[in-house]
From TrEMBL:
InterPro entries reported for this sequence: GAF-like_dom_sf, HTH_MetabolicPath_Reg, Tscrpt_reg_IclR_C, Tscrpt_reg_IclR_N, WH-like_DNA-bd_sf, WH_DNA-bd_sf
SMART domains: HTH_ICLR
Signal peptide: none
GO MF terms held by the record: DNA binding; DNA-binding transcription factor activity
One Pfam short name: HTH_IclR
Higher taxonomy: Bacteria, Bacillati, Actinomycetota, Actinomycetes, Mycobacteriales
Protein's UniProt name: Glycerol operon regulatory protein
Domain IclR-ED: 64-245
Keywords annotated in UniProt: DNA-binding, Glycerol metabolism, Transcription, Transcription regulation
Amino acid sequence: MLNTIDRTGRVLNLFTAEAPEWGVTAVAAALGLPKSTTFDILTSLAEIGLLQQTSGDRYRLGWRLLAISRRLMSSSCFNAHTHHTVTGLAKHLSATVTIGAWDGQGVVCIASGSASRTPPVLTEGTHLSGHASALGKLLMAQLSWAKVQERIDRYGLPALTANTVGDADGFRTQLSNVHQRGFAIEHGEAVIGHSCIAVGLYECERRMIAALSICTPSTTMRARQDEYVRIAQRTARTLLQHDASPKRQPPYCAT
């Protein structure tokens, strides 16, 4: 990856709901970059609308990102019907239902619905754990092990609970099991007392474009795992078939 692109991505990742504004000095210190380089990146991003400059020479995310986000959603197979389906299924199962995709660094939430306000509850754009979530395990299983190992070397496998997989060999075994089963499952790795299964959403040429998960209390999941897998797979087919039309290429299909 070009250094400029890598640095730009790292700069944008600093802007969060908890830290919405950054100055040149703070960004340079956080990323270990020269202030002159940091200044050039921030001003360039502001010029193209990805950042906006506030008072006191500070920066926050720019409104052009909203336009890009809307274009992304309108050009994908995820729309208002997706949210309606996810919310309806969550209420029907008294569960949390989430659709997520791999964005190159981790799993990003596309849509999520929950029957209650108890964990895990996600919002659109939230990043999920790659190694501890069922969504992450399924999506990372589509990567080469070299890519997975590179990510482990960079970010590690931090423990979210006492059940979180913590070593590369154990994680590799989990990914191998995902390939064999065709779906992913985790028990209490992300949230104690909760378990999740995840199935893929595929393009017709068999490339996984996203994944759908169902999360429930672990006791419920252990008793109804096979049923939830079938429901998730059927929902994936419904979502993609609903989107398929002669005007959209390529058409989508599900396993």
